[in-house]
Design brief:
By secondary structure, this protein is mainly alpha-helical. It has 5 helices and 2 strands. Strand 1 and strand 2 form a beta hairpin. It is elongated.
Length: 110
């Protein structure tokens, strides 16, 4: 089965601050931009922008919490991301095995 790769998803995950936000949300179950910014070396506004990116790609879900939003990881979307990563890893493993076979054949015939 070939899995379609979502470039927007991987672009969002590619940022180290967003990965750290996902780690924090997985650890704490939920958080606001304010509570999360207290655990990171970036401003609340920067955290809110990063959370917006994660929300747009579906990795987090936001629900109103007073004047802020409370964010939770969307575990189904995270599972799809993990499946995509595994598919990419498996594809590269197959490519590397093929390169090794070619190199061994060339070496054997030299």
């Amino acid at each position: 089965m070939t899995l379609a790769i979502n470039d927007d998803l991987w672009s969002a995950i590619g940022d180290p601050t967003r990965r750290r936000l996902l780690d924090l949300l997985l650890t704490t179950d939920a958080g606001t931009a304010t509570s999360l910014s207290e655990q990171l070396p970036v401003t609340r506004q920067a955290v809110a922008k990063h959370l917006g990116v994660l929300d747009r790609v579906g990795l987090v879900q936001a629900t109103p919490a007073g004047r802020e939003k409370r964010y939770r990881v969307d575990e189904a979307q995270l599972a799809r991301a993990v499946a995509q990563l595994n598919a990419v890893g498996n594809a590269w493993d197959a490519r590397l095995r093929r390169i090794k076979q070619i190199a061994e054949a060339i070496q054997k015939n030299s």
